[in-house]
Amino acid sequence: MRKAGRVFANHHNLFINTALTEEDINFTLNVAEDAFLALKNARQKGSI
To answer: CA-CA distance, 24 to 14, in Å (whole number)?
Structure first.
């Protein structure tokens, strides 16, 4: 996700950015979906 310009915080101090557009949010959700799918596939292959 970092390569796509998106980073999720690993702690509870999260803030909402009201400057984000719907396009920004959809892009982030799509990147997250791709990242989780890659993790799932790697786990099924036994590489993680």
So the answer is: 17
Residue range 1-48, pLDDT digits in tens: 777 777 766 666 666 778 889 998 899 889 889 989 999 999 999 998
Residue 8: inside a domain: no
Helix and strand tally (H, E) in the chain?
Answer: 1, 0
**Number of domain units in the chain:** 1
Contact 48, 36 (CB under 8 A): no
- Domain, as residue range, for 44: 20-48
